[in-house]
Design brief:
The chain is globular, with a radius of gyration of 14 Å. The chain contains 4 helices and 6 strands; from the N terminus they run H-E-E-E-E-H-E-E-H-H. A 6-stranded antiparallel beta sheet has the order 1-2-3-4-6-5, with helices on one face.
């Protein structure tokens, strides 16, 4: 998945907004003000990468399954994974991870917000 495809995927989710809350080079995707994805631009030394919220057990499984998935960078490593967007993780799998991250964040919201956002998602 390319960084642009990741942006498109994240912005398709209900309530998603993006900004550069952490400064240039890192696009932050939020739902109702809560972060669900952080996209870091590629540099001369590394590919673009995205940090996503994840169920702790699934996070460990994904890290075992894909070498490009590791503990979250600058976040709680138990609840977040960082995925290097170097094409080694199939795009459908990255999409599932983005949607799972959104779901994890939404699940922590009030019942009214959860229901409204999930209804919009379908």
């Amino acid at each position: 998945m390319t960084p642009q495809e990741l942006c498109d995927c994240a912005m398709e989710l209900p309530g998603a907004l993006d900004d550069e809350a952490f400064g240039p080079g890192a696009t932050v995707f939020k739902v109702e003000g809560k972060v669900f994805a952080i996209l870091q631009d590629a540099t001369d030394d590394q590919s673009a990468q995205v940090t996503l919220k994840c169920d702790p057990n699934l996070a460990l499984h994904l890290r075992d399954q894909y070498p490009a998935v590791g503990p979250g960078y600058h976040v709680n490593k138990r609840h977040w994974n960082t995925v290097v967007l170097d094409s080694t993780v199939p795009s459908p799998a990255v999409r599932e991870m983005v949607e799972h991250s959104w779901d994890r964040v939404v699940s922590g919201m009030t019942k009214a917000d959860r229901e409204r956002l999930r209804l919009q998602r379908g």
